[in-house]
Amino acid sequence: MTIKAMIKENNRLREQMTPGNKDYFEDIVVYFRTSDVDQIQSEQLLLELAHQLLEAQEQGINARQLFGPNAEEYSRIKVQILPKRKTIEGIQYYVMIPWIALTIFFFMESLVGFVAQWLGDSLDNFNRISLLSLIIIALGSVLLIEAVTKLLNRNTERAEEEKETRHTKPHLNLRMIVIYVVVTLIIMMIGYTFRNLLPVFTIQPWVSLLISVMGLLGWRLIFKRK
């Protein structure tokens, strides 16, 4: 059973819970999925707990009676028995985030460049990319996603829209792409303002487009999981 299938099954089981049991169990889900543990075994254990809770629910036993009064404390104990996430997975995650951010950045650069070219404007300003901008995007995207992931985790769970970037990691959704785009625009402005602090490169729009296409293909081949 794949991680995606387990998450889908978990969502289905949660819909069968009473409101009180569902709220309690979602606290467990949030704790598990934001912990640095092996994701496959984490999802397997969550399914086991969901089945246990539904069986108890049929007998009139609620989540607090079954697992204890504090969902976070129960989750902390259960997480301790799970193996830690492999180091390579963590490295892959933190390489993937700036990879995607830079891919979007170069796509936007190419788009702006082609529009400027079509309007007959000078491409001097649009073709120049500061090394400072690239560094800010790479480092800033990691910090941004870590912060946004924690803030949106609860709402994401309730909407049954799983953020598999911090989760199954390589999954993207529209909300996260919008955030990337907005932050990238801000960074482009910062990079343009302070671009002389580090070397600046001149890249034609079609080259930026080619880089973004290669970045997208690389993401699908290297990072995306089934």
TrEMBL record:
InterPro entries: DUF1129 (IPR009214). The chain crosses the membrane at residues 93-119, 131-152, 172-194, 206-223. Keywords: Membrane, Transmembrane, Transmembrane helix. This is DUF1129 domain-containing protein. It comes from Paenibacillus glacialis. The lineage of its organism: Bacteria, Bacillati, Bacillota, Bacilli, Bacillales.
